[in-house]
Specification:
four-stranded antiparallel sheet; 12 helices; globular
Length: 273
Amino acid sequence: MVASVTGYRSWGATPQLHRGLPSPYLTLIFSLDGPIVGGETPEHVRAPDAYRSEIVLGGLHQRPAYIAQPSHEEGVQLAVHPLAARALLGVPAADLTLLAGDGADVLGARATEIRERLGELPDWEERFATLTTYLRQRAEDAGRRGEVRPEVAEAWRWMAWHRGAGSLDGMARHVALSRRQLTALFQRELGAGPKQVSRLMRFERAQRAITGAVTANAVPDLSRIAAHCGYYDHSHLVRDFRQYTGLSPSGWIAEERRNIQAGGHRNGEEWDT
């Protein structure tokens, strides 16, 4: 249900604007050092109506979210499988927006108690254990209410097996539905169609290949990465980068190089295991 859990702490850094990139996962963040300030554009982050929350919850999205990173920050970030949204969050992923307001409004008072408890614990091991217990209890309480249509779950498995490169026709045949029926079920459950989710899977895989090259101090071969990740050609990879990051691949690398080399782009990747 959870692809990754990452604890982070930063002290004395230069304040900057961070791009939260689209991915096939939902984002749940418990901030332990004041509210997180975010927005749908750089201008929104600086505006009086910017999102401010100590528990951030974001759905599947097709463009970057922008976060103001202060000089001091600490918290825990989770990548939640969207098909686990009903069980862990109490709502389908389709009900979540780019930055779904205050996550405590969705998760309830117990989530606020957990955030406060995390801040009191002395080490990361205890924090992760506390989160695990909390999420398992939510899943148990949800019971059958946390289940999704089996056709959607199987279509997701098929898509993940093909790493986002399989055809919509092939996916629909696999679950014995028409393209239209499958798309409607995905939209209802996830707020995104199967083609959009497939693109997110391909993009995240390509992004990981690029960050792997940068971490190794190599120049990413974008044409090779595009072919390996199921893109029709190099230009289609560039198109997705511009949509999902607002930058070209080289522009994004230049902006994120220091963060990449510090390990800031590690996350779960179920379809590579």
